[in-house]
Amino acid sequence: MTNFQTRAVLAMANLLAAGLNVRTVLRYAKRVGGVPFLASPTNYQEMINWRKLFDRNPLLPIFSDKILAREWARARCPDLALTDIVWLGQNPRDIPEQYLKPGYVAKTTHGSSQNYFPDRESWDRAQIEATFERWLRYSRSSIGEWAYGQNQPRILVERLLSPARPVLDYSFRVHDGTVSMASVALGFKTSQSKFGYFGIDGTRYREDPDLGTDKGLPVDFEVDASFFAALRHAERLGKGVDMVRADFVWTGDELYFGELTAYPHGGFDRRSPVTEHILACWLQELDTNWFLNRRHSWPVSHYAKALRYHFRELAAKAPSPPSSAR
What we know:
By secondary structure, the protein is of the alpha+beta class. It has helices spanning 3-20, 22-31, 44-54, 59-63, 66-76, 125-137, 225-237, 273-283, 300-316; strands spanning 85-89, 104-108, 115-116, 155-159, 168-175, 178-186, 194-198, 244-250, 255-261.
């Protein structure tokens, strides 16, 4: 396939992908900016959206279900603590009343931000049941996130952790067992949350978009040994897949598994040198990519061949890693 043929195939694929996914194109334009190349991604955000359309790796539904992800973590990191699940079911009317009180959190197994914290808000029983029934009917597959539509939605109730100090949330981007970067959050999912982005050596990135802002961790914040313990677990959890986000919670006394995410931020977060570094590392591990390793019939085989060439070109132009703030 000549260079002209490669570009022609990718151009046609991009037109087709955009025409069939207008909602994604419009959402990308509003939240990220510009028109995305859905069939030949050139940045990290486009790469996530490409995965949503083309990657049918059977591991992605496992990562997208909170119960299956726990089982994955238990098998690969048996020494990693798991939160205590006290109830699991499919009907919100069956949730015992005792678990809808402070000290617990109820959430769906297939959703994002579908949580009820009795410690933070007080809903009556009718509101709880109506809200969870609505959440169970909704699937993120309706907005293109294929993996979320492959499992039966359920409800789980966890016993809340009761740490003596605010917890730290660790998130690692992993590529076939190699971590590209980490983010650390203090007070995650609260109005006082603070974030920071770090290299695998624990140093803060100078290009951290939140550095020195009200949203950022203090400029003198330093990670401790729990960060590196979580990193080692992340390496094991992400082995065998080209990209997954692995999350953990550090209470000050114990490191807990959080969740695995196949489509971080849905591919609609802000662009930065940090996200471009994630893409550069992702491109180095495409030997484990499901779509590129499949045998395809024509015309998809022509597209896959052109895409491999495109990714090789993109990898050759990848920027240098973000620099340390120290």
